[in-house]
Design a protein that fits this description.
The chain is built from 13 helices and 12 strands. It is an alpha/beta fold and 379 residues long. The chain folds into 2 domains: 240 residues, Type I PLP-dependent aspartate aminotransferase-like (Major domain) (Aspartate Aminotransferase, domain 2); 133 residues, Aspartate Aminotransferase, domain 1, CATH 3.90.1150. It has a 7-stranded mixed beta sheet, with helices on both faces. Strands 8-9-12-11-10 form a 5-stranded mixed beta sheet.
Amino acid sequence: MKFNTKTIHGGQKPDAAYGAIMPPIYQTSTFAQSTPGGHKGYEYARSANPTRHALEEAFASIENGKFGLAFGSGLAAIDAVLKLLKPGDEVLSTNDLYSGTYRLFTKIYEDFGIKFNFIGMQNANHIEDYITDSTKLIWVETPTNPMMHIIDIVTTANIAKKHKVLFAVDNTFATPYLQQPLDLGADIVMHSATKYLGGHSDLVMGALVVKDKELAERLYFIQNASGAICGPQDAFLALRGIKTLHVRMQRHCENGRAVAEYLDNHPKIEKVYWPGFKHHPNHAIAKTQMRDFGGMVSFTTKGNNYEASIKIVENLKIFTLAESLGGVESLAGHPASMTHASIPKKDREKIGVVDSLIRLSVGIEDEADLIADLKQAIG
C-alpha cells in the first residue's frame, strides 16, 4: 500500500458494529464485563480505548512501524521514552532542540540522575566521539527546531546499533510524508501530533511508533502505568487529520519553497534557514532521507536587527503570531521570546537562535497571498 493510500486506509477498517467508515468516538471511561476479566478487549479507557486504538494503528501504518502509542501531548510521549532510563544513564541530544524537550531533559530528568549531553550533530560521524558506557539513548530532531539542521539518520542509526544504544527521532517537522526514520534504522519515532499529523490546530497530542515488540511492550506498560493518554475526541480529530496529511504536506512543501526563495532574495533579510537550498550545509543528506523539504522556514533580518524582526511579526496579516506549527494556517513565531525562551540566552545564541530570528510555519493558503503578506510586513 502506497503512502497516500495508507493515510486513509492504513491500519483502518469499518467499525464492526454498524460499518461506520470513521471509528466512533467511544466517550466512555469503562466497559461492561460478562464475568470478572471477561470483556471484549477493553476494560478501562486508560489502558485502551477503541478510538485511541484505531489512531495508534494509523500511527504505526504511516510510519511503517508495527506498534503505535498515542499520548496526551508530544512531551508526554518524550517523557515515556525517558522512563525507559535509570539514574546514571546518559542521553546524547542535538544542541538545536525544541525548548520544551530541553526543559524536560534539564529541569526534570537531570534531577533524577540522568545526564544529558547536547552536541552539534550536523556531522553525524562525530556523535561516536561522545558515546560512553553510560550512553543509553540518542535523541535527535531532523530538521531541527528552529535552525533547520539536518542530521544523517542512517549514519546515526549505525552508530547507535554498534554501541547498543537506543536511537529516537523526533519526526514532527518532516512527518512520515517526507521521511520515515524507522526504515532508516531508528528504534523510536516521536511526533507532536498537535502539529502536522492533526493539522488543524485543534488538538494537543503525542505519538510514538516502534517496530520492536519488546520495546513496544515496555512503552505500553509506561503509557498505562503513567496514564498520560489522549482522550477519544482528540483521537478522532487526529484520525481525521491523518486522512489529508499527504495533500496538506504537498501544499506545505510548495508554499514553503516559495516563501524560502522569496526571503532568500530579499535585501532586508540576512539569512534564511531551509534544507531545500543547495547551499544548506546538509542539503545532500536531506535529499537522500527526505522526499521534499517541508513548510518550516526560519530567517533573520539584516544586521540581526531585533526591533525590525519584532515589527515584522507584529505587522503580518495572514501569518498569525502564535505558538505551535503544522496547521493549515500560516503561523509566525519569535523563538527567543516564545518557543525557545526556556533555553538560556547564551546557549540559544551559540546555536544561532539570536534575538532577530523568526520562525515561519508556512500553511496551505494561496502562495501569492503569503508572499504579499511578507512583502508588506518586511517593507
